[in-house]
Structure formats: C-alpha cells, structure tokens
Amino acid sequence: MTTDDAREPDDAREPAADDIADFDDDDVDEGGLGERERAVLGVERRSWPGPGAKERAVRESLGLSPTRYYQLLNALLDDPRALAHDPVTVNRLRRVRDEKRLKR
Questions:
Q1: Tell me: the pLDDT tens digits for 64-96?
Q2: Cα torsion at 95, 72, 79, 43 (round to 10°)?
Q3: CB within 8 A of 5, min separation 6: which ones?
Q4: ∠24-70-9 over CA atoms, to 5°?
Q5: Among 23, 17, 29, residue whose Cα is nearest residue 81
Q6: Closest CA to 23 of 80, 64, 75
Q7: How far is C-alpha 6 from the chain's CA centre?
Q8: In a 3-state reduction of DSSP, which class is residue 1?
C-alpha cells in the first residue's frame, strides 16, 4: 500500500476554504476573483435539465461537495468583486435568496 492509497478519497472530506481542487490562486482576474470563484458563478449561469445534474457537475468539474459549493456561492453573493464580475447572475441569486428568507 502506497501513501497515495492510504489517503482519504476526495469525496470523503470537505475542502477547507483555501483548499482549491485544481484551481490556481494565482489565476485572479482584474476584478480580484480567483478561478474557482469564477467557476462557481459559471455553474450558476447555466441552466440545468433536471434534479441532480448541477450537483453532479459540481462534484465532477469543481471537486466540491454540493454543501461546500453552496457555502462558497452564498459567500460570493455578498462579495462586491463577484457583483462586478457577473452582475446579472449575482443580482438574480440575491433576489432568490432574499425571497426564500422572507418566506421563512
């Protein structure tokens, strides 16, 4: 058994805030968002055919659990850099979030 075999599978652990699957922190756009943040907004920009498709894409393309993905997304909605990068998506998601909060 090698040390690679003894490691926990990627799906079994939650990544830390700065644990980026295969994304490079040095790849920051002019607005200050990193590659992972832009990828999260890109997932939300798409439309999805049915339940489970988005969660599967999040696991496969971003290497994140859906729970961690939504934690990152929620933090991005309050980040002015995200608003500057993709105002249409961020404002739409803020409206949806606010409507859900009002219903509670």
A1: 999 999 999 999 999 999 999 999 999 999 999
A2: -60
A3: none
A4: 60
A5: 29
A6: 64
A7: 28
A8: coil
